[in-house]
Amino acid sequence: MVFTHVWGLLFHPQAEWKAIRKENCTIGKCFCSHALLLAAIPPLAGYIGTTQVGWQVVSREVHRLTPDSALWIAILSYLTILVAVFTIGKLIHWMGQTYGAKQSLSQCIALAAYTATPLFLSGIMLLYPMLWLNLLLGLPVLAYTVYLLYTGVPIVMGIPAERGFLFSTAVLAVGLVALVAVLAATVILWDIGAGPVFAG
Predict the structure, then answer these.
(1) What is the spatial distance between Cα 126 and Cα 147, in angstroms, rounded to a whole number?
(2) What pLDDT does 55 receive?
(3) With pLDDT > 90 as the criterion, what percentage of the chain qualifies?
């Protein structure tokens, strides 16, 4: 059930987006069965990577987080991912009127959740939290996620490709604003003492 569309989105996205549109799933089916489980991959891998493997910055010293600190960061990351997917789905639904799309809220949330699939899966990289490696592998994943967005919006929302391009660009802009907001909130939380605690 969870991986019904994962393979298709990775290897034949246009056909899979058409299948997703025909499915007309509910919020419970698409969000809960897809996003709730796959969104746990990055926080879980990050928890293991930062507490067991660790990372090096400049020196040869390996840095690790305490299990308690990493657990709180993992839980907050997981909740943030879920809220972000749901919020972007709501915004897609709200913006749809501007572009002549009349899809249900559940379809819009499904679009947001399924678009994020490569990002969810790539979270496995956090098992080995090496910044340069994660950037090297993460950039193509991010590019493919953007590609999924641009192919999925016109199909799922049932609008022409030209309007779909503008709609996708608006959604991408909203996603970037949300990312900046999350980063700003993280800096504020770290500044008031809710930051990571290093082991040793």
Answers:
(1) 23
(2) 85
(3) 68
The angle at the Cα of 92, spanning 87 to 83, to the nearest 5 degrees, equals: 10
**3 within 8 A of 138, measured Cβ to Cβ:** no
Confidence of residue 2 (pLDDT cuts 50, 70, 90): low
Q: Is 200 part of a structural domain of the chain?
A: no
Residue 180 lies in a domain: yes
Within a domain: 27: yes
**Residue type present at position 126:** L
Report residue 125 as tokens. Answer: 């990289």
- Measured distance CA(8)–CA(151) in Å, rounded: 13
**Of the candidates 71, 49, 187, the residue with the CA atom closest to the CA atom of residue 129:** 49
Residue 1 lies in a domain: no
* DSSP 8-class letter at 34: I
Q: DSSP label at 164?
A: H
In the chain, how many domains are there?
1
Supply 178's token pair.
């949300």
State the number of CA atoms in the 13 A half-sphere of 32 facing the CB: 5
Nearest to 120 by CA among 57, 77, 176: 77
Asked whether the beta carbons of 8 and 146 are under 8 A apart, the reply is no
190: domain range?
6-194
Report the distance separating Cα 135 and Cα 142, nearest Å: 10
